[in-house]
Design goal:
- By secondary structure, the protein is α/β, with parallel strands linked by helices.
- It folds into 5 domains: 9-156, no CATH class; 169-365, NAD(P)-binding Rossmann-like Domain (Rossmann fold, 3-Layer(aba) Sandwich); 381-549, 3-Layer(aba) Sandwich (Rossmann fold); 553-634, Orthogonal Bundle (Helicase, Ruva Protein, domain 3), CATH 1.10.8.60; 638-692, no CATH class.
- Helices cover 43% and strands 19% of the residues.
- The protein is built from 27 helices and 25 strands.
- The strands form 7 sheets. The protein has a 6-stranded antiparallel beta sheet with strand order 6-7-3-4-5-8. Strands 11-10-9-12-13-14 form a 6-stranded parallel beta sheet, with helices on both faces.
- Helix 3 packs across helix 10 (331-341), helix 5 (197-211) packs across helix 10 and helix 8 packs across helix 9 (305-315).
């Protein structure tokens, strides 16, 4: 029976019927149940893809990383990253056992142990994170974990440093797997595509243990290697375990292959390749290097195992592939034996780590070697892309100068967020920021709304008069959204106020002086309206001291990831629920073209939170809602185009529908070539139709 030994089924809260490893939420309460053990936490080792996702989503800010981890545990009862679907392992001191006879290992209170069970399966509560170890991807922390009678553990070896020991324990299954494969095949030449010096040396030691001293290991590492050592230091510390080390751009595997084989032709056909790096491209390089009928070994399935299979198939190369990372009782002892063999080298690495500012260097290297750039936040302006980062830097600079500003961008891109950034970082931050949508002001009331009126100025005027927008914004900022909708007459009056900083109320005889910084926005470039004669050129130049162009969301796709996360958190807080986007759902959001920009993204996330019945929002659910949006953007609403009873013109209807389809394709793809490919048309045909409809 699977329930003979407790492995945590009664700790599953949501959804019931799953195992702790796959459940969304676990009960992490302190009180022990039968067949459970409580462990006081000392250190947690996070799997590397989990650690780097946490770091990149938090901009490598240590306090934000800590807050993110606390939030995951609060929502899930375990440290199980819903984006990477991975976790890690822990070490600590046994605090209490409930029914010790149910446990097979001879352990008791006070024993220091390593838990070999993934944190995906373990109820966890962290009280304090004392340090984030960026070298090993570990947390020095306090709190407790609940282990079960079926949870494998091993006792701590006091003479080994806990950082590299815990890292080796996490890789124990893969290390023993490499050893077994090398023993069976007795090859002599190996390539290790390594993540860092410690991991690479552990796999080199496993190979040496299998085939003896007559072996040759070559290491290949990303040129932006994610640790705080120079290339020369890495080469030196890994020698003689590793004969040669090459640093290349793993994201360009073809170029890397040519560069390496030009220096060493023997690497064109190697018997066994071990892939311990998760950068996309490492799997392709590994398949290219290994000889036909050779072996490619992955230390984790997440390291693009499936992609490697497709690459090998496309090359017509038969390759045996392994990805073995499960627990067997003797694995930890094997890893400990390897650690003792290379302990002096590992201690040397730790001494080098201790000399440097690891946090800063790791953040810079990591940012260059992964797709997702560091997330940023300025006064609640959330962003992740380099495009937005550049714009925010411009905004922060402009904020310091007390001048008029034009903010341009499509509807929904976040022009008011840019306004808030300027206001909060300007010398007027303590004074009012009055926001006006000019499109809602009727022409007959525009003058009285902007400049106010005196008592009795016109029929219906309230007694005592009323101040206008300029008076309300005195010493602060007046934000005029959709300024292009104002009439030319009103533009003329606005220009005079900007020139003289004075005006008269409607029906007034006393001149009023104001000190107002005017910031305007429009979804159509004002220069375009000037060229059409719809906006005064002199007013344009008066306003255009500085201009901020807010790019559409489709041109800063990395922002979709952090914005989605922020929106889902806000809606979950409002509705007092816990939901998260699956990686597939995030991918769907990332690929969509977002004609409504950030506003549309927030709307879609809101709908997903409400409509999804599960805690994790699936990619299919996201795709369904996005398909509705895309179709709605294309289709022709006949009822709005024609009056009831009016005869319909078939050709006119077809032209309008064709225009919308072409407009949709151009918005989605960005260029006529890509849009033509999407619609299955020759580019010349699409370009001609684009010209026909003035798109």
């Amino acid at each position: 029976m699977i329930t003979d030994r407790n492995f945590g089924l009664d700790r599953v809260m949501e959804p019931k019927g799953l195992t702790p490893a796959t459940a969304w939420r676990l009960d992490n309460s302190w009180q022990l149940h039968s067949g459970e053990m409580r462990v006081r936490l000392e250190r947690i080792h996070l799997e590397w893809d989990n650690f780097q996702q946490l770091c990149s989503s938090c901009g490598f800010d240590e306090e934000r990383i800590k807050a993110k981890i606390f939030d995951i545990i609060h929502r899930r009862g375990k440290l199980h990253n819903p984006f990477t679907k991975t976790a890690g392992v822990l070490m600590g001191i046994v605090d209490e056992l409930c029914e010790p006879d149910l446990f097979m290992d001879d352990i008791g209170p006070g024993d220091k142990i390593y838990s070999l069970t993934s944190l995906c399966s373990i109820p966890l509560h962290i009280e304090e994170i004392k340090e984030v170890d960026f070298n090993y991807g570990q947390l020095v922390c306090s709190g407790y974990a609940i282990l079960f009678a079926a949870s494998p553990v091993c006792q701590i070896k006091e003479d080994l440093s806990p950082d590299y020991t815990l890292a080796a324990i996490d890789d124990a299954g893969s290390l023993f797997g490499v050893y077994q494969v090398a023993m069976e095949q007795q090859m002599k030449d190996f390539v290790i595509i390594g993540r860092n010096a410690c991991t690479t040396m552990l796999y080199a030691a496993a190979v040496r243990e299998a085939v003896g001293p007559q072996y040759r290991v070559t290491a290949i590492m990303d040129k932006n290697v994610r640790e705080n050592l120079s290339h020369e230091e890495i080469r030196r510390v890994m020698h003689p375990l590793v004969k040669d080390t090459y640093f290349v751009d793993l994201t360009e595997p073809l170029k890397a292959y040519e560069e390496i084989t030009r220096k060493n032709a023997e690497l064109m056909s190697v018997g066994q390749v071990i892939i311990a790096e998760d950068i996309r491209g490492a799997e392709t390089l590994g398949v290219m290097i290994v000889k036909a009928l050779g072996t490619v070994y992955f230390n984790a399935v997440e390291n693009h195992y499936a992609e490697a299979q497709m690459v090998a198939e496309s090359m017509g190369k038969f390759v045996t592939m392994y990805a073995f990372d499960q627990y067997i009782k003797d694995y930890p002892e094997f890893s400990i034996r390897l650690l003792r063999h290379i302990q002096m080298k590992l201690e040397e690495i730790n001494r080098l780590y201790a000399k440097r500012n690891v946090h800063r260097t790791l953040a810079e290297n990591h940012a260059r070697s992964i797709l997702i750039a560091n997330a940023g936040r300025e006064d609640d302006f959330i962003y992740q892309s380099a495009v937005t980062k550049s714009m925010v830097e411009d905004v922060m600079n402009v904020a310091r100068y007390d001048c008029n500003v034009i903010i341009q961008g499509e509807t929904g891109v976040g022009k008011e967020k840019v306004l808030s950034l300027i206001h909060q970082n300007s010398e007027r931050h303590g004074n009012p920021c009055i926001k006006i949508n000019c499109a809602t002001i009727t022409e007959s009331l525009a003058e009285s709304e902007f400049f106010g009126y005196e008592s009795g100025a016109f029929t219906g005027a309230q007694a005592g008069g009323k101040p206008g927008y300029f008076e309300m914004a005195n010493n602060g900022i007046l934000f005029l959204d959709e300024i292009g909708t104002l009439s030319l007459n009103m533009q003329s009056k606005l220009l005079r106020v900007l020139q003289e900083n004075q005006f008269y109320r409607v029906g007034g005889t006393k001149q009023i002086s104001v000190n107002v910084r005017v910031i305007v926005a429009n979804n159509v470039p004002l220069r375009t309206l000037v060229d059409k004669g719809e906006f005064r050129e002199d007013l344009y130049y008066r306003l255009n001291i500085c201009r901020i162009d807010v790019p559409p969301l489709r041109e800063r796709r990395e922002d979709i990831i952090c914005l989605s996360e922020a929106f889902i958190r806000n809606w979950c807080n409002k509705y007092k629920i816990d939901k998260a986007l699956s990686p597939d759902a995030v991918s769907q959001l990332y690929e969509y073209y977002w004609p409504g920009n950030v506003r549309e993204l927030e709307n879609v996330v809101h709908r997903l939170v409400i409509s999804s019945k599960d805690e994790i929002i699936s990619g299919e659910e996201a795709a369904n809602i996005l398909s509705e949006n895309a179709y709605g953007d294309m289709r022709l609403n006949v009822t709005k185009s024609f009056q009831q009873g009016e005869q319909l013109d078939f050709h006119q209807l077809m032209d309008q529908q064709e225009k919308r389809i072409i407009e949709y394709a151009l918005k989605k793809e960005g260029t006529t070539r890509k849009a033509a490919s999407l619609l299955g048309l020759p580019q010349t045909t699409l370009a001609r139709k684009k010209l026909k409809y003035g798109l």
